[in-house]
Structures are given as structure tokens and as C-alpha cells.
Amino acid sequence: MAAKKPTTRKRTAPRRRKPVQRARTTRRPRGGPIGKRAATWLAFAVAKHGEKHLQTVSSRQDAAILRITHEGCPRCHGNGQIFTKGKDGSFTGSKPCPAKPTKEKAGRMKVAMAARFGPDKNSGLIGWTCPCGKKEKPRYRDAKAATKALRTHETRKHGGTTVGGAWYAQVPASTAPAHAKVPVKVGP
To answer: In 118-185, which ranges are continuous DSSP H helix?
Structure first.
């Protein structure tokens, strides 16, 4: 009699596996000397601030690349994206310019200069304000990211209830339409 072949175990498909929460890469000490705890707190605060700054700079660079490659575009007027408006003329969001870029490449030095210096360094970015007085300067690439940041603020400071807020966009000074600087209410 032939030996019975063992049945192969059916494996779980990758899409059905449950995601596992990743462990933190650095462990925060909870006890120990006060100097060590203070130094750890300071190191994490500086790292968090630096991460936010790097995100802002990369958003500015993305916006600068769009402005440089869409310079002279008749659809977006050189902004690289189109800010949409509601029936009342207020700002409701943004979408990428559907037109083909007027330039193929943007030089690294031009992008760095446009992202760091001058009055237009935040052009093409979106900020938000809250009725409580908290506001963030234009640093988000689109209205979706700005809304997410506003909702995070509302969760932390207002207990998760929507108190109403506003987006605002910065456009290049040469092409500033009237509706772009008007804040629009977000939420009820």
C-alpha cells in the first residue's frame, strides 16, 4: 500500500491577514532621573517640530515646481492647480490643472529659491482657521489635507465636535482672483 501524501495546509491570502501594529522604534523611558526624562521629552519635541517643518518645505517645493512648470498657463494662470468655488463665489477646494505643463523641467535652484524666499513661497498651498482663534498658515497641498488637519484640531481641542472652520488659499500676487482669499466655512 502506498504511503498517504500529507495534505497541504491552505494559507491565508495576504489581503485577509490582519495588520499587526508596529512597535515604536524608540522607547520613551517613563521613570528614571528627571534630567533624563526632560532630555527625552525635549528630543521628541524637537523631532516632531522638525518633521512638521520638513513636510511644509516639501509641500512648498511641490507647489513651486507646479508654478514653474505651469508658468503662463491660460487655465490655471501659472498656479499649477485650480481653486474651485461655490455658487456664492467662496473657495470650496482645489484640483490639479488639467492642462499640459508649459515647461518640461524645473531647475533645482529655481525650485529651492521659489520655495524658500519671496512673497510667493506659500502660493498654491492651503491653510485653515478655527473660530476659537487657532489657525495654520498655508502649508497643505490640497483641501483634503487641510480639512484633515482641521478635523484633528477639532478632535483635540473641541472634543470631536465640528465648530466650523475655514480654508484659505494663497495664490500668486499677479493672478489673485477675488474668491481665493475669502475663507469658506467648513462644517455645520
So the answer is: 143-157
List the beta bridge partners of residue 164.
Answer: none
pLDDT digits (tens, 9 = 90+) for 119-143: 778 888 888 888 888 988 888 887 7
**Cα–Cα distance, 165 to 128 (Å, whole number):** 7
CB of 125 within 8 A of CB of 58?
Answer: no
Q: What is the DSSP letter of 11?
A: P
Rounded CA gap, 138 and 125, in Å?
Answer: 5
Do 66 and 111 contact (CB within 8 A), yes or no? no
pLDDT digits (tens, 9 = 90+) for 8-29: 777 766 655 566 566 556 666 6
When computed from its CA atoms, the radius of gyration of the chain, rounded to whole angstroms, is 24
